[in-house]
Amino acid sequence: MKKLIVLFLLTILIFTVLTFSTASLQMKVDGNDMYGFPASFYVLYGGMMTPSPTVEMTSFHFLNLVLDIAVAFILAVIVLMFYQRVVTKLIKIGKK
Length: 96
Prior knowledge:
By secondary structure, this protein is of the alpha+beta class. It has one domain (2-95). The chain is 56% helix and 11% strand. The protein has helices at residues 2-21, 62-95; strands at 24-25, 33-35, 42-44, 58-60. The chain has a 4-stranded antiparallel sheet, with no helix packed on it. Helix 1 (2-21) packs across helix 2.
């Protein structure tokens, strides 16, 4: 149970860091704000656009969000596996 909680929290942390570190925030300079890595799941249209969008000023793609969370989960599993290997090697070295 403890490993699942750590995995869940690490997934959220990695997802948040990836999303905000790769976000394209250009609304202040007549651009669009785009969130998501590797797939953009949220776009906020802004600035002076010609022609302006005929539909909503935001775009949300649920499948891209699921893909981004899956990537964060895979990275979290890799990080935990690497951490466990390093810890076990350090424990073996400490016992010698």
